[in-house]
Design goal:
about 240 residues; mainly alpha; hpI Integrase, Chain A; 2 domains; 12 helices
Length: about 240
């Protein structure tokens, strides 16, 4: 099956280049969008929290002490903004604009960190020291233990599960893969497309839109029409499902 998919990808890229360069039927080179599956994409899909699990988690969080408020804020940032543990630890008070209701995250993955002198970290431990990502891991695990069964907790990463949950919930509400890429700070959009594999309904909608688009830009040709009819060629749909 992998070898067959490579053949399909190669032929489709050649066909799209022909339509773009020779026939001038399409206005942009769509061949660049047909990429090979990256090796890590064959791994298990990322684990995320279900809506009812998120509700139980936040319902169990308290706001009665500074430590409770800190925990609530960190989990909120991890879930709503999809921030990584390292990114949370580097947030300072100067990164927050209360007037604009904005948060500036300067140290996204892949970028050189920007360090400014004389800034106190927003999140500190009980000894007044900078909270580490391992500290965030322990805190998130502590509260997830109260919301999830032990068996369920073993299947997820206590911190990154919030990031994955953020992406999946964005997908469910109709946000595009590009929106997810920008929100999570991915350098490559292929890192974001892994979440499509978690929503088969969404994938099928994208496949249908792709086929409709190809029909709209191609000239009338019965052979092409037959090729783009999924009920007539299950191999094409199997290939699309494997992307």
């Amino acid at each position: 099956m992998p070898a067959t998919c490579r053949v399909y990808r190669s032929k489709l890229r050649g066909f799209l280049k022909y339509l773009y360069q020779e026939r001038k039927i399409i206005k942009r080179d769509l061949a660049v969008l047909v990429t090979s599956r990256r090796s890590y994409s064959q791994a298990k899909p990322p684990k995320f929290l279900r809506p009812q699990e998120i509700q139980r988690l936040f319902a169990g969080l308290k706001l009665s002490t500074p430590s409770h408020i800190r925990t609530y804020a960190m989990i909120h940032l991890a879930y709503c903004l999809g921030l990584r543990p390292f990114e949370i630890t580097r947030i300072t008070l100067d990164d927050i604009s209360f007037r604009k209701r904005e948060l500036l995250v300067k140290t996204r993955k892949g970028n050189n960190p920007m360090t400014l002198p004389n800034q106190d970290r927003l999140f500190i431990n009980q000894r007044g020291q900078e909270l580490t990502r391992h500290g965030i891991y322990r805190i998130c695990r502590k509260y997830l233990e109260k919301a999830l069964p032990k068996k369920r907790l073993k299947t997820i990463n206590p911190v990154h599960s919030f990031r994955h949950t953020c992406a999946v919930h964005m997908l469910y509400r109709g946000d595009s893969v590009t929106d997810i890429k920008n929100h999570l700070g991915h350098e490559n959009i292929q890192s974001s497309t892994v979440y499509l594999h978690l929503d088969l309904k969404r994938r099928r909608q994208i496949q249908d839109r792709f086929l409709k688009h190809m029909k709209s830009v191609l000239t009338d040709d019965q052979k092409i029409d037959d090729l783009l009819q999924p009920e007539n060629n299950t191999d094409i749909m199997d290939w699309l499902d494997s992307l």
